[in-house]
Amino acid sequence: MLRLLRWTAAAAAALLVDPATPYEGARRMADELGRGVGVELTWKGEGHGAYGNGSDCVDSAVDAYLLNGTVPKDGTVCS
């Protein structure tokens, strides 16, 4: 088995834009679904998923929706 003696590559930058789900596309989808159906909840984080990524704001909103049907306020912003 080979062992890596020295790591020479630079670390990759954080993923700030999700190519799988562009932010503008998510905003348009909320608009298309219509008032009272589509809501926009923004997570100011990085990566391809917000739930379970350390944001109590996101996790609480998702849990409340899935467990009780409580829809978050449109335009909610989570860190």
Please explain how this structure is put together:
By secondary structure, the chain is an alpha+beta fold. It has one domain. It has two helices and two strands; from the N terminus they run αβαβ. A two-stranded parallel ribbon has the order 1-2. Strand 1, helix 2 and strand 2 form a beta-alpha-beta unit. The mean pLDDT is 82. It comes from Streptomyces bungoensis.
Largest sheet, order of strands side by side? 1-2
SS class:
alpha+beta
Mean pLDDT: 82
* Rg result: 17 Å
Uncertain segments are none
Query: Can you count the helices?
Result: 2
Helix content: 25-40%
Protein name: Peptidase S33 tripeptidyl aminopeptidase-like C-terminal domain-containing protein
Domain Peptidase S33 tripeptidyl aminopeptidase-like C-terminal: 17-78
InterPro entries: Pept_S33_TAP-like_C (IPR013595)
Organism: Streptomyces bungoensis
Give descriptors for this structure.
elongated; two-stranded parallel ribbon; Peptidase S33 tripeptidyl aminopeptidase-like C-terminal domain-containing protein; Pept_S33_TAP-like_C; 79 residues; alpha+beta
Short structural description:
By secondary structure, this protein is an alpha+beta fold. Helices cover 30% and strands 8% of the residues.
Question: Mind sketching the topology for me?
Answer:
Blueprint: H1 23-33, E1 41-43, H2 56-68, E2 76-78
Parallel strand pairs: 1-2
